[in-house]
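Morning. Coffee machine broken again, so started the prediction first thing and wrote up yesterday's gels while waiting. Chain of 282 residues, entered below exactly as on the submission form.
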Amino acid sequence: MPNSLLPVNYQNEILNARMGNRRQYEIIENNNGTISFIDVTEYDREGSIFDADDINDICTAINLNITNIAALEQAIPLDPVTGVKGSAESEYRTGNINITATNVGAYTKAEIDSLIAGIGGMHFEVVDSLPTQDISTTAIYLVPSSSSRYKNRKDEYVYIPANAFNPLGNEAQLVSDYSSLPATGQADVYYITSDDKKVYIYESGSYTEATNSPAHFVSTLPSQGVELDIYVLTTNNSVYQYKQEAGWEQIGSTSVDLSNYYTKTEIDTGALISTSEFGNLT
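Came back before lunch.
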Protein backbone atom coordinates (compact mmCIF):
# COMPACT_ATOMS: atom_id res chain seq x y z
CA MET A 1 0.00 0.00 0.00
CA PRO A 2 2.39 2.74 -1.17
CA ASN A 3 1.54 6.38 -0.30
CA SER A 4 -0.76 5.25 2.55
CA LEU A 5 -0.28 4.79 6.27
CA LEU A 6 0.43 1.34 7.65
CA PRO A 7 -2.12 -0.12 10.11
CA VAL A 8 -1.45 0.33 13.80
CA ASN A 9 -4.43 -1.61 15.14
CA TYR A 10 -2.89 -5.09 15.51
CA GLN A 11 -4.00 -6.91 18.67
CA ASN A 12 -3.01 -10.03 20.59
CA GLU A 13 -5.41 -12.94 21.11
CA ILE A 14 -6.90 -13.63 24.53
CA LEU A 15 -7.74 -17.28 25.38
CA ASN A 16 -10.77 -18.14 27.47
CA ALA A 17 -9.89 -19.11 31.04
CA ARG A 18 -11.30 -22.62 30.48
CA MET A 19 -8.50 -23.30 27.97
CA GLY A 20 -5.90 -23.41 30.73
CA ASN A 21 -3.72 -21.02 28.71
CA ARG A 22 -3.40 -23.69 25.96
CA ARG A 23 -4.76 -23.76 22.45
CA GLN A 24 -6.85 -26.82 21.62
CA TYR A 25 -6.96 -28.59 18.27
CA GLU A 26 -9.20 -31.35 16.87
CA ILE A 27 -7.68 -33.99 14.55
CA ILE A 28 -9.81 -34.96 11.55
CA GLU A 29 -9.21 -37.51 8.78
CA ASN A 30 -9.28 -36.30 5.20
CA ASN A 31 -10.66 -38.30 2.26
CA ASN A 32 -7.17 -38.84 0.88
CA GLY A 33 -5.94 -40.57 4.03
CA THR A 34 -4.27 -37.49 5.56
CA ILE A 35 -5.18 -35.72 8.77
CA SER A 36 -5.74 -32.01 9.57
CA PHE A 37 -5.74 -29.94 12.73
CA ILE A 38 -8.76 -27.76 13.44
CA ASP A 39 -8.36 -25.00 16.02
CA VAL A 40 -11.21 -25.44 18.51
CA THR A 41 -9.77 -23.05 21.10
CA GLU A 42 -12.24 -20.68 22.76
CA TYR A 43 -11.09 -17.05 22.48
CA ASP A 44 -12.28 -14.03 24.43
CA ARG A 45 -10.57 -12.00 21.69
CA GLU A 46 -9.08 -13.26 18.46
CA GLY A 47 -5.64 -11.99 17.50
CA SER A 48 -4.72 -10.14 14.30
CA ILE A 49 -3.33 -11.98 11.29
CA PHE A 50 0.21 -10.88 10.29
CA ASP A 51 1.16 -12.38 6.93
CA ALA A 52 3.19 -11.70 3.80
CA ASP A 53 0.90 -8.88 2.73
CA ASP A 54 1.78 -6.94 5.90
CA ILE A 55 5.51 -7.55 5.38
CA ASN A 56 5.28 -6.37 1.78
CA ASP A 57 3.48 -3.19 2.87
CA ILE A 58 6.21 -2.44 5.41
CA CYS A 59 9.00 -3.02 2.90
CA THR A 60 7.24 -0.85 0.31
CA ALA A 61 6.95 2.03 2.81
CA ILE A 62 10.64 1.72 3.76
CA ASN A 63 11.71 1.74 0.11
CA LEU A 64 9.57 4.83 -0.54
CA ASN A 65 11.21 6.66 2.36
CA ILE A 66 14.66 5.76 1.07
CA THR A 67 13.74 7.18 -2.34
CA ASN A 68 12.32 10.39 -0.82
CA ILE A 69 15.38 10.92 1.39
CA ALA A 70 17.68 10.52 -1.61
CA ALA A 71 15.64 13.12 -3.51
CA LEU A 72 15.86 15.56 -0.58
CA GLU A 73 19.62 15.14 -0.38
CA GLN A 74 19.83 16.15 -4.02
CA ALA A 75 17.51 19.15 -3.57
CA ILE A 76 18.94 20.55 -0.31
CA PRO A 77 22.56 21.76 -0.30
CA LEU A 78 24.49 19.96 2.40
CA ASP A 79 27.48 22.30 2.52
CA PRO A 80 28.85 22.40 6.06
CA VAL A 81 28.69 25.61 8.11
CA THR A 82 32.21 27.04 8.07
CA GLY A 83 31.69 29.90 10.52
CA VAL A 84 29.24 32.15 12.33
CA LYS A 85 29.27 35.90 12.90
CA GLY A 86 26.90 38.51 14.23
CA SER A 87 25.89 41.53 12.15
CA ALA A 88 28.27 43.74 14.15
CA GLU A 89 31.27 41.43 13.65
CA SER A 90 33.74 41.66 10.78
CA GLU A 91 35.07 38.08 10.86
CA TYR A 92 33.51 34.61 11.08
CA ARG A 93 34.17 32.41 14.11
CA THR A 94 34.31 28.63 14.37
CA GLY A 95 33.94 26.12 17.17
CA ASN A 96 31.53 26.54 20.07
CA ILE A 97 30.04 29.94 19.28
CA ASN A 98 28.39 32.18 21.86
CA ILE A 99 26.42 34.99 20.24
CA THR A 100 26.03 38.01 22.53
CA ALA A 101 24.22 41.33 22.24
CA THR A 102 27.50 42.98 21.30
CA ASN A 103 28.05 40.51 18.42
CA VAL A 104 24.76 41.49 16.77
CA GLY A 105 25.06 45.20 17.53
CA ALA A 106 22.39 45.28 20.23
CA TYR A 107 22.56 47.18 23.49
CA THR A 108 22.85 45.31 26.77
CA LYS A 109 20.57 46.21 29.67
CA ALA A 110 23.47 47.96 31.40
CA GLU A 111 24.17 50.03 28.28
CA ILE A 112 20.51 50.99 27.93
CA ASP A 113 20.36 51.97 31.60
CA SER A 114 23.49 54.09 31.10
CA LEU A 115 22.01 55.81 28.04
CA ILE A 116 18.76 56.55 29.85
CA ALA A 117 20.69 57.92 32.82
CA GLY A 118 22.65 60.16 30.47
CA ILE A 119 19.48 61.53 28.92
CA GLY A 120 18.09 62.28 32.33
CA GLY A 121 21.24 64.22 33.21
CA MET A 122 20.82 66.74 30.39
CA HIS A 123 18.93 69.95 31.06
CA PHE A 124 18.18 73.27 29.37
CA GLU A 125 19.48 76.64 30.51
CA VAL A 126 18.22 79.91 29.00
CA VAL A 127 20.98 82.53 28.97
CA ASP A 128 21.64 85.88 27.31
CA SER A 129 25.08 84.71 26.14
CA LEU A 130 27.24 81.64 26.41
CA PRO A 131 28.92 81.44 29.84
CA THR A 132 32.68 81.67 30.26
CA GLN A 133 32.91 80.00 33.67
CA ASP A 134 31.04 77.34 35.66
CA ILE A 135 30.12 75.72 32.37
CA SER A 136 28.04 72.54 32.64
CA THR A 137 28.79 69.68 30.26
CA THR A 138 25.28 68.28 30.79
CA ALA A 139 23.43 71.48 29.85
CA ILE A 140 21.96 72.59 26.55
CA TYR A 141 22.30 76.37 26.54
CA LEU A 142 19.61 78.40 24.76
CA VAL A 143 20.89 81.82 23.62
CA PRO A 144 19.17 84.45 21.49
CA SER A 145 19.52 83.57 17.83
CA SER A 146 21.92 85.58 15.72
CA SER A 147 19.11 85.85 13.17
CA SER A 148 16.59 88.63 13.82
CA ARG A 149 14.08 87.02 11.48
CA TYR A 150 12.47 84.97 14.25
CA LYS A 151 11.42 86.77 17.43
CA ASN A 152 11.58 83.79 19.78
CA ARG A 153 14.32 81.80 18.04
CA LYS A 154 16.97 80.41 20.38
CA ASP A 155 20.19 78.73 19.27
CA GLU A 156 21.12 75.53 21.12
CA TYR A 157 24.70 74.95 22.23
CA VAL A 158 26.50 72.25 24.16
CA TYR A 159 30.01 72.51 25.55
CA ILE A 160 32.45 69.87 24.32
CA PRO A 161 35.30 69.32 26.80
CA ALA A 162 38.90 68.94 25.68
CA ASN A 163 40.08 65.60 24.25
CA ALA A 164 36.56 64.26 23.76
CA PHE A 165 34.59 62.41 21.12
CA ASN A 166 31.69 64.54 19.96
CA PRO A 167 28.66 62.55 18.71
CA LEU A 168 27.68 63.96 15.32
CA GLY A 169 24.11 62.60 15.11
CA ASN A 170 22.37 64.13 12.07
CA GLU A 171 25.65 65.76 11.02
CA ALA A 172 26.86 62.41 9.65
CA GLN A 173 25.31 59.84 7.36
CA LEU A 174 26.51 56.30 6.60
CA VAL A 175 26.03 54.90 3.08
CA SER A 176 27.14 51.55 1.65
CA ASP A 177 29.29 52.97 -1.18
CA TYR A 178 29.87 56.04 -3.34
CA SER A 179 27.02 55.15 -5.70
CA SER A 180 24.61 55.25 -2.73
CA LEU A 181 25.26 58.92 -1.98
CA PRO A 182 22.06 61.01 -2.29
CA ALA A 183 21.69 62.89 -5.55
CA THR A 184 21.66 66.16 -3.66
CA GLY A 185 23.58 66.30 -0.42
CA GLN A 186 23.27 68.65 2.53
CA ALA A 187 25.80 71.19 3.62
CA ASP A 188 27.66 70.60 6.90
CA VAL A 189 26.98 66.86 6.74
CA TYR A 190 29.69 64.20 6.57
CA TYR A 191 28.84 61.31 4.19
CA ILE A 192 30.77 58.14 5.03
CA THR A 193 31.01 55.12 2.71
CA SER A 194 31.11 51.79 4.55
CA ASP A 195 32.99 49.91 1.81
CA ASP A 196 36.13 52.08 1.63
CA LYS A 197 35.57 54.20 4.78
CA LYS A 198 35.97 57.49 2.90
CA VAL A 199 34.43 60.76 4.11
CA TYR A 200 32.71 63.09 1.63
CA ILE A 201 31.21 66.57 1.86
CA TYR A 202 28.69 68.09 -0.54
CA GLU A 203 29.49 71.54 -1.87
CA SER A 204 28.93 73.45 -5.10
CA GLY A 205 26.68 70.70 -6.42
CA SER A 206 29.14 67.79 -6.12
CA TYR A 207 30.86 65.52 -3.62
CA THR A 208 34.50 65.93 -2.67
CA GLU A 209 36.55 63.81 -0.30
CA ALA A 210 37.02 65.55 3.03
CA THR A 211 40.44 66.35 4.45
CA ASN A 212 39.72 64.13 7.46
CA SER A 213 39.10 61.09 5.22
CA PRO A 214 39.19 58.12 5.67
CA ALA A 215 37.06 57.47 8.74
CA HIS A 216 38.10 55.14 11.54
CA PHE A 217 35.78 52.15 12.01
CA VAL A 218 36.30 50.87 15.58
CA SER A 219 34.50 48.53 17.98
CA THR A 220 35.30 50.81 20.94
CA LEU A 221 36.38 54.44 21.02
CA PRO A 222 40.11 54.81 21.78
CA SER A 223 41.36 56.76 24.77
CA GLN A 224 42.63 59.46 22.41
CA GLY A 225 41.88 60.24 18.79
CA VAL A 226 43.16 62.38 15.93
CA GLU A 227 41.99 65.97 15.83
CA LEU A 228 38.76 66.36 13.78
CA ASP A 229 38.92 62.76 12.50
CA ILE A 230 35.70 60.78 12.12
CA TYR A 231 35.18 57.60 14.18
CA VAL A 232 32.39 55.11 13.45
CA LEU A 233 31.47 52.79 16.31
CA THR A 234 30.74 49.47 14.61
CA THR A 235 28.64 48.14 17.50
CA ASN A 236 25.80 50.58 16.73
CA ASN A 237 27.01 52.67 13.73
CA SER A 238 27.11 55.87 15.80
CA VAL A 239 29.49 58.54 14.46
CA TYR A 240 31.87 60.72 16.48
CA GLN A 241 34.39 63.45 15.78
CA TYR A 242 37.43 63.87 18.00
CA LYS A 243 38.34 67.32 19.25
CA GLN A 244 41.46 68.08 21.24
CA GLU A 245 40.41 71.60 22.20
CA ALA A 246 37.38 72.40 24.27
CA GLY A 247 34.70 74.51 22.65
CA TRP A 248 31.07 75.19 21.93
CA GLU A 249 29.08 73.16 19.44
CA GLN A 250 25.77 74.39 18.05
CA ILE A 251 23.38 71.45 17.85
CA GLY A 252 20.28 73.21 16.55
CA SER A 253 17.78 75.93 17.26
CA THR A 254 14.29 76.26 18.62
CA SER A 255 11.54 78.77 18.06
CA VAL A 256 9.46 78.00 21.14
CA ASP A 257 7.93 80.97 22.91
CA LEU A 258 10.11 81.68 25.94
CA SER A 259 8.71 85.12 26.66
CA ASN A 260 7.21 83.96 29.99
CA TYR A 261 10.43 82.34 31.21
CA TYR A 262 13.26 83.93 33.15
CA THR A 263 16.92 83.68 32.22
CA LYS A 264 19.55 82.19 34.50
CA THR A 265 21.02 85.70 34.95
CA GLU A 266 17.69 87.05 36.16
CA ILE A 267 17.35 84.19 38.64
CA ASP A 268 20.92 84.52 39.95
CA THR A 269 20.76 88.31 40.38
CA GLY A 270 17.36 88.29 42.08
CA ALA A 271 15.87 90.53 39.41
CA LEU A 272 12.65 88.53 39.37
CA ILE A 273 11.02 90.20 42.40
CA SER A 274 11.39 93.82 43.49
CA THR A 275 11.92 94.63 47.15
CA SER A 276 8.68 96.68 47.20
CA GLU A 277 6.73 93.42 46.88
CA PHE A 278 7.77 92.52 50.40
CA GLY A 279 6.53 95.81 51.91
CA ASN A 280 3.38 94.33 53.48
CA LEU A 281 5.13 91.37 55.01
CA THR A 282 6.47 93.28 58.05
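Residues 14-75 form one domain. Going to sketch it on the whiteboard this afternoon.
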